[in-house]
Amino acid sequence: MAVHRSRREFLKTAAKGGCAALLPAPLLAQGAAPRVVVVGGGFAGASIARALRRADPRIAVTLVEANRTFIACPFSNGVIAGMREIAAQQFGYDRLAADGITLAFTTATAVDPQARVVTLAVGTRLDYDRLVLAPGIDIRWDALPGYNEAAAEQMPHAWKAGAQTLALRRQLEAMEDGGTVVIAAPANPFRCPPGPYERASLIAYYLKTRKPRSKLIILDAKDAFSKQRLFLNAWNELYPGILEWVSQSKGGEVTEVDPATKTFVTDFGKHQASVGNVIPPQKAGRIAELAGVADRTGWCPIDPVTFESKLVPNIHVLGDAAIAGAMPKSAFAANAQAKVCATALVRLLRGEAPPTPKLINTCYSLVAPDYGISVAGVYHPANGQLMDIAGAGGVSVIDAPRSTRSREASLADGWFHTITSEVFG
Amino acid sequence: MRLSLALTLVAVSLATAQAASSEPPAGAAACTGCHPANTGVETPVPRLAGRNAADIVAAMQAFRSGQTPATVMDRIAKGFTAEEIQAIAAWYAAQR
User: Fold this and answer.
1) For a surface tag, which of A70, A329, B19, B32 has the fewest beta carbons within 10 Å of its beta carbon?
2) Domain presence at residue A97
3) What is the pLDDT of residues B24-79, one digit of tens each?
4) Under CATH, domain B2-21+28-94 is a member of which superfamily?
5) Structural domain of residue A254, as residue ranges?
6) Are A60 and A132 part of one and the same domain?
7) Considering its fold, how many domains does chain A have in total?
8) Contacts A405 to B, Cβ<8 Å
């Protein structure tokens, strides 16, 4: 019930932990306008920028984002499969500006954690009291032989929504009936764990309804994946003979690709695709590495109460870039983390101990336009990371009737309207 | 006797939560991922802001016990204690 620890208790814990988490001077109490710089205007970054302004309008918030239009990844599999248009994925930052957030449409190129300065590509230097990095993912272009930025033109990843999404859609549209679509799914961790399987499902739906002699193969670097039983059952029911999943132990791990011939190489042989979609290994967005908050895995270890980097003080990391324990790399999680981090930052800027948070994630996937499934979790800090609350969360009921699947599809749609309204509306 | 004591405790905890700043209690901020913070959002999921706290508490308890059938709220409600649910309900009741 009493969720915030006393300052003394917090200091004791901090001292015991041996980290530099001592409470700073209470900037807000002194009447100064604390400066928070947020890098990355996706679900995490835009959410915290707005949450901070709402919690305390004295905080000066600058949001650094390269693009004037945000293109959402959730539901972009529907764009690939021709069920919706990319315009439904696009959002602007006007309402953030109206909240009093300073927008800098450029990239951040350097961080000096000692001086607490972010340098922008345009040359501007921004001082900060707290820096929030929400850079999402970057593709690891060196991880899969044959797959580089040029190869992504032939074999789109479509794992950042936008031009890549449309490129994959155009290839599917241009494919003749009877073709083979191959999707390479990566090893963990990666953005949106159920995403490759939702994508396969919706492409299979497109093939079944538009090009029924065609097939889809998922080559997987794993033997298990998110909502696996739900997906496998649904595929048996909806897409028999169309969709085939090849696990790692059955030869699914792709070791090399040849973009010129759209060939996927595995230890067990080669698969030639009419349309090839490589979902490659990923890492935190580049600024995380530049700021020194990414570890050897390429992702960013964080404190589960404040989301402050475990490597660099005064820098907080949110969303897909963070190592958030049991929380998946999802838009819902990014938004939930942002709101928790905003509360923690307001407390820290007041010189107070941050409260112990509790977080939720809910991820819907569509297996067909009227067939939705979900996974949910509730999380709390334990043993230095975000852990599942035992007994809560889990996936949709395995043997639920179609009416439940249809209800979850409509809840998925409602979720997208709700979260984008909160973040951008 | 025990019941009236429990009710008094609930009332006190609600009053405490309402008197506090607008900082959301643990777990509350995540709800608006699905329950719209804004009005006029196209979704079957209800807004929580301004609803009666006791109604929210009752709904959560029914989800947690399985008394109310659910797609996802049963899985989420099980992650919260009675005290947390009360604090969250009181906070949403005070929102507009």
Assistant:
1) B19
2) no
3) 999 999 999 999 999 999 999 999 999 999 999 999 999 999 999 999 999 999 99
4) Cytochrome c-like domain (1.10.760.10)
5) 151-281
6) yes
7) 2
8) none
Identify which of B31, B41, B79 has the shortest CB distance to residue A417.
B41
Are A242 and A195 members of one domain? yes
The separation between the first and the last C-alpha atoms of chain B, rounded to the nearest angstrom, is 35
Q: Are residues A179 and A193 in the same domain?
A: yes
Same domain? A29 vs A56: yes
- A246 with A293, same domain: the answer is no
Give pLDDT tens digits for A212-252.
999 999 999 999 999 999 999 999 999 999 999 999 999 99
Question: Cβ of B78 and A392 within 8 Å?
Answer: yes
Model pLDDT for residues A337-363, shown as the tens digit of each residue = 999 999 999 999 999 999 999 999 999
Probe site for chain B from A356, A387, A418, A424 (most B CB atoms < 10 A): A418
Q: Mean pLDDT over residues A13-36, rounded?
A: 64
**Number of Cβ pairs closer than 8 Å across A and B?**
123
**A350 shares contact with chain B (CB less than 8 Å):** no
Q: Is the pTM of this model over 0.90?
A: yes
Which chain A residue is nearest to residue B25, measuring alpha carbons? A3
How far is A187 from B39, CA to CA, in rounded Å? 40
User: And the tokens for B26?
Assistant: 């643990």
Question: Dihedral, CA atoms, B43, B49, B54, B59, nearest 10 degrees?
Answer: 20
Q: Which residue of B has its CA nearest to A408?
A: B71
One domain for residues A276 and A291? no
CATH number assigned to the domain comprising residue A269: 3.50.50.60
Residue with tokens 């402050």: A308
| A123 and A43, same domain (yes or no) | yes
Let me know if residue A390 belongs to a domain. no
Q: Beta A300-301 vs A322-323: how paired, if at all?
A: parallel
pLDDT of residue A24: 67
d(CA A129, CA A307) in angstroms, rounded, equals 15
CB contact under 8 A, A378 and B31: no
ipTM over 0.95: no
Question: In this structure, are residues A319 and A309 in contact, taking their beta carbons and an 8 Å threshold?
Answer: no
Name the residue among A389, A407, A411 with its Cβ closest to that of B79.
A389
Nearest Cα residue in chain A from B69: A404
Task: Identify residue A128 by its one-letter amino acid code.
Answer: Y
User: CA-CA distance, A76 to A191, in Å (whole number)?
Assistant: 13
Other Cβ atoms less than 10 A from the Cβ of A89: the count is: 22
CB contact under 8 Å between A378 and B27, yes or no, is yes
The B-side interface with A (CB below 8 A) comprises 13, 22-27, 29-38, 41-45, 71-72, 75-80, 83-84, 87
Q: Which of A281, A299, A326 is the last residue of a domain?
A: A281
A266 in the same domain as A288: no
Query: Which residues, other chains included, contact A17 with Cβ-Cβ below 8 Å and sequence gap of 6+?
Result: none
